[in-house]
Amino acid sequence: MIETPLGWALLLVLGVATGILSGLLGIGGGLLMVPALTLLGVPLVQATATSLVGVFLSSLSGSMRNLSMGELNWRVSLTLAGFGILTAQAGAWLADRLPDAWLSLAFAGLLLITIYLMHLRQSLQRQQKQDRVPSATPAFAPTAGIGLLAGLLSGLFGVGGGVVMVPLQMLLLHEPIKSAVRTSLGAIVAIAISGLAQHTANGNVLWLPGICLGLGGIAGAQLGTRLLPRLPDRVVGWLFRLFLVGLAVYMVLRGVANWG
User: Fold this and answer.
1) What is the pTM of this model?
2) 194 and 55 in contact (C-beta within 8 Å)?
3) What is the rounded CA–CA span in Å between residue 193 and residue 151?
């Protein structure tokens, strides 16, 4: 179905919807695109690979704007990306070899961990406002470690890795929230390319559906970020938690159904 004009139009609309939720809830589109593609009958490893096309396009768009505004610390982004590229290859290689049921259950676990990490990010953000942590040059070793972890998750699950990078950058590098978001977004561009290269070699990427998702995601993210200021933080937080719990339940049921 998704390889027809009607399917491409549906994916474009789906991309807009995931982009709105991404901008509204502050999470990467890959976390939403992968379960949505599986609902349309796409095998999980292909959904993982295809979502990276959308992740790449949306992160490139945001990073180009940050760079033009002089708001991107490209040195930190390059360090994160340099190490993330290495493990993105490993993650994509592993995703091609894991049974669908295992990958579904692991993805559900990632969704639940995401809830905790976003809560941690909010707590760190409040603490930064109180303590007014000064900017400093991030240490190399923890930056490299964060990049390695983000790359592995990106290649394995088709996500950007920012949901892990941002709170860890704030916790380990004492990086302000806005700076962490921008540098992680810049790193995701290169990390997504690395994962895509391995998935392409494995024949897992559905390019045209991925481009439709990405273009819709770019437009939807613009709408989501404009809606965000209109909603109370508490409402956004509960929407985020309920949505990810729902996705996690779906992925668990999918994994159990495909077990054995």
Assistant:
1) 0.79
2) no
3) 11
